[in-house]
Design goal:
Strand content of chain A: 5-15%
Structural class of chain A: alpha/beta
Low-confidence stretches of chain B: none
CATH class of chain A: Alpha Beta
Number of strands of chain B: 4
Largest interface: A-B, 17 and 19 residues
Oligomer: heterodimer
Number of helices of chain B: 7
Structural class of chain B: mainly alpha
Number of domains of chain A: 1
Mean pLDDT of chain A: 83
Shape of chain B: globular
Shape of chain A: globular
Largest sheet of chain A: 5 strands, parallel
Order of helices and strands of chain A: EHEHEHEHEHHH
């Protein structure tokens, strides 16, 4: 029996999910999938996955609908979780901004090699699944959002949103 | 603990309902597991009952506690009851559960949070819903607050009280 997943993918594009799931299955890695902000947070609240991979552009419920904001929520809930933001619709400047956000551990554009990168991250997450909680890291990561000026975070968020809107208009 | 109180001579009907529920579980085919917290809390509450002069535990003496500990050890020894080791992240996740509940203006004790996490972890490992047998109504209140827990855990109120 495959072990319970330690990785959560938050993605609403069924084709992308299928593709990642096949890659994970091929490597014998379990993967939990959530399609929406609320669904992801509910599952994460119970399980506290080691690794969360969230698409930037998520369908919203009553919540703010960006994957970035979702990861901020998750960071406060389980600070030791490794949080990765992905997007297929960002301009170069916005990508650079996203990569510099201290709240998340990594940002990746959706390039062709992304599934392999994510599998490597997931494999590492499985390897540390039975590690003791690193309380120093928990403390450090929990405090990280407090070191970020909310206005700066909003600026980054706005830039990312603008990109998504621009790409949507291009169709 | 309801089982211990009932066998110690409690007149409380909830203790006797709890005893009947536990006896049924012990006699049944299900796999019964506790967390290490079960052991610590059971022992702690047993001796609270020994020490108190209040009516809720006045009937319960040290001989009752010794008998109940011995019976508990017998269940462990004959594998009627197994104790699952805590997961490595049990305390971190316990903290997260307490915070989530607190954010909704409710209280969840730390040990209860860890116990609930362990039940969910067991459910994830087996791929089946775990029945959490308890006389503590706080568990059902938490599941009511966060229905997502219901996918992993069903709370069985051993006293038959309704927490919802």
């Amino acid at each position: 029996m495959m072990k319970a997943a330690v990785t959560l993918l938050v993605e609403d594009d069924a084709d992308v999910v299928d593709s990642y799931r096949r890659t994970f299955d091929h490597d014998g890695l379990a993967l939990d999938v959530a399609e929406t902000w609320g669904e992801a947070l509910a599952l994460f609240r119970v399980v506290g996955h080691r690794l969360v991979i969230a698409d930037y552009n998520l369908p919203g419920d009553e919540h703010d609908d960006t994957g970035l904001r979702l990861l901020v929520e998750m960071k406060l809930l389980v600070p030791s979780a490794e949080l990765v933001l992905i997007s297929g619709a960002l301009s170069q400047p916005a990508e650079q901004l996203a990569a510099q956000i201290p709240l998340i551990d990594a940002f990746y554009p959706k390039t062709s090699d992304l599934p392999d990168i994510l599998v490597a991250l997931a494999r590492a997450a499985v390897e540390r699944a039975d590690d003791e909680t690193d309380w120093h890291m928990v403390g450090t990561k929990y405090l990280t959002p407090n070191d970020v000026i909310e206005a700066a975070l909003a600026e980054i968020d706005d830039a990312l949103r603008a990109d998504v809107a621009k790409n949507a208009r291009r169709g | 603990m309801r089982w211990a109180c009932a066998t110690g001579g409690s007149a409380d009907v909830r203790d006797h309902r709890g005893q009947a529920a536990l006896d049924e579980l012990l006699a049944g085919p299900q796999e019964l597991c506790g967390s290490p917290i079960t052991v610590a809390e059971y022992t702690s509450v047993l001796y609270d009952h020994v020490r108190t002069n209040e009516t809720w535990g006045a009937y319960f003496g040290s001989e009752d506690a010794d008998r109940c500990v011995k019976q508990f050890m017998q269940w462990l020894a004959d594998d009627t009851l197994a104790i699952r080791p805590l997961g490595r992240r049990a305390f971190e996740m316990g903290m997260a559960y307490v915070s989530s509940v607190a954010a909704r203006g409710r209280r969840m004790r730390g040990w209860d949070a860890i116990h609930l996490y362990e039940a969910c972890r067991w459910a994830r490992e087996t791929g089946e819903q775990v029945v959490l047998a308890t006389s503590d109504t706080d568990f059902q209140k938490t599941v009511n607050l966060f229905p997502e827990f219901g996918a992993f855990v069903r709370v069985l109120d051993t006293t038959g009280d309704d927490a919802s």
